[in-house]
Please model this.
Amino acid sequence: MRPVSVWQWSPWGLLLCLLCSSCLGSPSPSTGPEKKAGSQGLRFRLAGFPRKPYEGRVEIQRAGEWGTICDDDFTLQAAHILCRELGFTEATGWTHSAKYGPGTGRIWLDNLSCSGTEQSVTECASRGWGNSDCTHDEDAGVICKDQRLPGFSDSNVIEVEHHLQVEEVRIRPAVGWGRRPLPVTEGLVEVRLPDGWSQVCDKGWSAHNSHVVCGMLGFPSEKRVNAAFYRLLAQRQQHSFGLHGVACVGTEAHLSLCSLEFYRANDTARCPGGGPAVVSCVPGPVYAASSGQKKQQQSKPQGEARVRLKGGAHPGEGRVEVLKASTWGTVCDRKWDLHAASVVCRELGFGSAREALSGARMGQGMGAIHLSEVRCSGQELSLWKCPHKNITAEDCSHSQDAGVRCNLPYTGAETRIRLSGGRSQHEGRVEVQIGGPGPLRWGLICGDDWGTLEAMVACRQLGLGYANHGLQTWYWDSGNITEVVMSGVRCTGTELSLDQCAHHGTHITCKRTGTRFTAGVICSETASDLLLHSALVQETAYIEDRPLHMLYCAAEENCLASSARSANWPYGHRRLLRFSSQIHNLGRADFRPKAGRHSWVWHECHGHYHSMDIFTHYDILTPNGTKVAEGHKASFCLEDTECQEDVSKRYECANFGEQGITVGCWDLYRHDIDCQWIDITDVKPGNYILQVVINPNFEVAESDFTNNAMKCNCKYDGHRIWVHNCHIGDAFSEEANRRFERYPGQTSNQII
Model:
């Protein structure tokens, strides 16, 4: 006979159930919140260093064994579920590539996919428990909101691996503390512990340890110190040692990842026969602290850099691009980790990497993807020295472009500038601190010629990312600050602080006085980035002789050469070089016209509104840069013509709609529309350069203006034109650009 289960009720059993409150399946009253049983006996913890109590590498205990989660397909929704399992209300972020260090043991989950509504991680889809093709270099982590679930059971409290951990490191000058110029490059190594700052015992201290410390503090390398001087100095000073036995390999991203030991509270003899550890770091070219260091670095012969960062809102961060065969391209994020990111950071003159970014977090590149599956040990001097895989078009897409965030030296530049009067911390009137003669004082900046480039530098110095607008702040109250202390500010847009820009110095000259004409900014963490599809220009270029009677509207909008004014209208024709232009937005914010719809200008002849008077410049130049013909294009319709597969169109010009270009979309100006040309009627036969510049007056802020220009070689024989070698201005190496400008040769001529 088959045994009866508890759910198969007899009539007597049913009656007993109705009479008895302890019947199986009946709810019992609860006295407080109870931990959900959805985790099925699993335990969770956060691990790794450096971290705060509410963040770390996620580890799961199953069947008595602790293991990790692979970052493949990991999302914020999965992080929400895990943070709730850990007793927090929600997640604010997640990390990949073992940011908190690689774990050990099993990798329990891979390809974890959660919707965010699950009660337990066991309800999420995955490859199954223990089924993974990952390594611990791909361990996922979470950053939870520092707010606990009410009544959460203590059985799942975060387990801390050590009572002490190194969270912060600094270099303290042995003499002249507080008077040394920033950044501090040499001094005693100090770590922050719960009871304050402590020194590190130098017994067994190695160059590898110094390398890690310097990298954490934003310096690419280290040098030997005068040990005898510091030994003598140590005998005259009192020290508080908190750490000893530090042994780094040299590739660690943080001192806490090295083997080390903390002194116990009852240790009376600390660092016997030793002294405080001392390091001397070598700053990168951008942060060289003294003119002597700068001259020394400039005297060394340096070839062109083969790696660069693009699209970052702050110094030392961005999309990684590498130079191969004289052309710049991106790096695929497959197997991208902190070791590879640190090699890039140090190669560029920064410290070690804070983060290795994947998934085009710094915007998508365009063109070639040169490298994939880069595997660095962390000791390489260049990313090209790391083992890697050459890539094909099918292997990776620009949605997988790798990026980095590097450690930077502390310069204190952000303490010498502030905003006031704005509606938020990201906007306001710019105030700068100047010194001498007399005490330090705050003052305003003259608004004459203050524009987007100057605002970009101000926002960068403030640590607030990009500039949305640079303006004269008549509508922001200046408070008690009324003195103008800086004028004539002219920046290239690449400076780290306003004092690096050209300005009038102590001689203040301001055409319009008064606080209502001083400089202000609106900053943003994201910005657009426009890029012209250069290959389409080359493919669509042709010559048209267009009758004058068809050019009245074009003449009204100044789209013809000046000689057209004296032509015999409506007879005759103008010779036009036509081409299509496809403008992509590869940034992290939509490109919007500077002016709102209320101030757009209506043009009756063409029957459309202009949202920007000049959106694009077209020029024909001689090889030495002399302009022989020019054209311009007003933005009569900025809209999303086409978009990438996973992006929806947002802007359309029909019915007086909003204008702009969405991230991941492009605007197409076809070759057959008015003003999409250069009037070359007066151009003589010869070799020339065709140049197209988007947003030439910097009216709208972008994350990168260096890629706004496109150049082509062209040869005109009076009847036909050959256009070839079209490329974005920063797409070639410096040497390739020099060859291009020396002689626009005809190596791949195309008869148009």
Residues 129 and 255 are 33 Å apart (CA to CA). The first helix runs from residue 11 to 19.
